[in-house]
Design brief:
about 400 residues; Spore Coat Polysaccharide Biosynthesis Protein SpsA, Chain A; alpha/beta; three-stranded mixed sheet
């Protein structure tokens, strides 16, 4: 059953939230003066509404401290006095004109609300080895959108083409299955002005909808969420000996931005990761890792927020677990073993931890299934583990050979 989506502002009087008979639960985003401070999902057990009283209690428990902190921050904030950076926004896509249309419509709504003295964002659509001209036609409806075609198939080929075409001081990437929040530009600007030495910025990613079982399962397991605390990440992370190799440290590639010159200096994205169907993952993790290892800070800013359309059916979700989160992640870690001798022991420990953690997770959900408790389908977790095995056993080397062949065929 679907989860109803609610977006609440705590400075406005709370009201009962109506639910329909089709709603198995509710997903609630809470803001204070438009700043996101909390998100949760809750089952509704057939109730016709969530009362304002119950909401107030839940908000106090989930976000009370953060709301107070935001109020204090607002009182003590000193105007930064820094000009907004010039930004190129890259949309790397392949045969998804509907998603590109939705994203561009939303993006230009956000651009229209920017202050008049803000630099006009440069919007770039990178069409990655398309099978037809539908995306070109979509981009052509927007006079200020630049369109380029990257003939070599693979997301990181498209990202590197965006890097070469970028005109902005900042290069931001939005996937074609997201839309930016109304505070997206403000969040990126705040992160930039407070961290002028940072090389990368990531933001919160919440669900766009929770209409299907696959979407609900994915979000209940954490989705792409990273929390609502601002985090500045550097060379070390106290208490985490596996850092910076983990998958959940930095944010999601669906919504990320970089200082263009630093990205160029690091050689861009590794084109043997995020190659498409063969290795559909790891490219964002790799560039985050390399930025940290190069000595640059990376900043996570929850106001730099986007909404992601999760996979709608279980087959698509299964492929994501097996290939993006299993195969792609392990290919990325294998690369780290090859290229970073100083961290080789830590990366090896991370690989062992990953397999142990996911095996325990699988056993835990198998027990819940036997007890008829709510659980993640074991097939998803088995697929993720199997993808990890395939990635560990030569996945990255095979991908490099495929990419070399693509470069020979399409110089």
């Amino acid at each position: 059953m679907r989860y109803a989506m609610f977006d609440l502002e705590v400075t406005v009087a709370l009201r009962d939230l109506p639910l329909s008979s089709e709603d198995g639960g509710a997903a609630i985003l809470v803001r204070r003066k438009s700043v996101p401070v909390a998100f949760w999902m809750q089952a509704t057990n057939g109730e016709g509404c969530i009362t304002a009283t119950a909401l107030a209690q839940k908000i106090a428990a989930e976000a009370g401290t953060r709301i107070i902190a935001e109020a204090i921050r607002e009182e003590l904030a000193v105007p930064a006095g820094c000009a907004a950076p010039s930004v190129t926004i890259a949309i790397c896509t392949r045969d998804r004109p509907g998603g590109v249309t939705r994203l561009l419509n939303s993006l230009f709504e956000r651009i229209a609300s920017l202050p008049r003295d803000s630099p006009t964002p440069d919007v770039l659509v990178v069409d990655n080895a398309p099978s037809d001209d539908r995306t070109r036609e979509v981009a052509g409806r927007y006079p200020t959108v630049r369109y380029v075609r990257e003939p070599r198939a693979g997301l990181n080929f498209a990202r590197n083409r965006a890097m070469k075409e970028a005109r902005g001081e900042i290069l931001a990437f939005l996937d074609d299955d997201v839309i930016p929040d109304r505070g997206w530009f403000e969040g990126l600007g705040a992160a930039w002005n407070s961290n002028r030495d940072a090389a990368a910025f990531t933001g919160q990613v919440l669900p766009l909808e929770l209409e299907t079982d696959a979407q609900i399962i994915f979000e209940k397991r954490g989705g792409f969420r990273r929390g609502f605390e601002r985090i500045r990440l550097g060379p070390v992370f106290p208490g985490n000996s596996l850092y910076p190799g983990g998958a959940g440290n930095f944010g999601a590639g669906a919504n990320m931005a970089f200082r263009t010159r630093v990205l160029e200096a690091l050689g861009g994205f590794d084109e043997a990761l995020d190659t498409g169907a063969d290795v559909p993952g790891g490219g964002d993790l790799d560039i985050f890792y390399r930025i940290i290892r190069a000595g640059y800070p990376l900043v996570y800013e929850p106001r730099f927020m986007a909404f992601h359309e999760h996979r709608r059916d279980m087959d698509e979700l299964s492929r994501q677990y097996r290939r993006s989160w299993g195969l792609g992640f392990m290919c990325y870690l294998t690369k780290c073993l090859w290229t970073d001798p100083e961290r080789r022991v830590n990366v090896a420990r991370l690989i062992v931890w990953w397999f142990c953690h996911h095996t325990r997770d699988l056993l835990g959900h198998l027990k819940k299934r036997l007890r008829r408790q709510e659980h993640i389908p074991p097939s998803l977790l088995i697929g993720e583990l199997w993808g990890g095995v395939v990635g560990l056993l030569g996945g990255y080397a095979r991908s490099r050979r495929r990419v070399d062949e693509i470069r020979r065929q399409v110089p």
